[in-house]
Amino acid sequence: MTHELTLPHLIDAARAWARGSFALEAAVELLIHHGVWLQRREFHRYAMDYITTTYNRVPFVIIDWQSAHHALSRGRMPCSRSEAAVLRIALSIADALPVELGPAITGLDSINFVRVLAAMNHAHGDRTAWTSVRGDTTS
Description:
Layout: H1 7-18, H2 22-34, H3 41-47, E1 48-51, E2 60-63, H4 65-73, H5 81-95, H6 101-106, H7 110-123
Antiparallel strand pairs: 1-2
């Protein structure tokens, strides 16, 4: 169902779901600012549930981090090395899934490295960390 929704709607719904947990917010923001995973059908299929019936009438996109990890590990979400590294780091931030940080970091270009640093700062409690990410058009 999520593949029929617009990207801005998915972003709003994912942010609404993550709100209140620095780690979840940071991981979701990393995926949003990276600009790849929330647009992938495979990610929608294996890792996302769209929920419209909530107590506050705000729809949620729930990300199943374990399912994303299993799908990525089993080759069900084809991607580049850099895309995999960003997702693995988001998985680690959100759900404490292990990531080999050395190979993940060295596989990133400079803008994705800065995005990962912003996500780490956000997870540490700094919601303003994303304002310093240059080259980003995501709000």
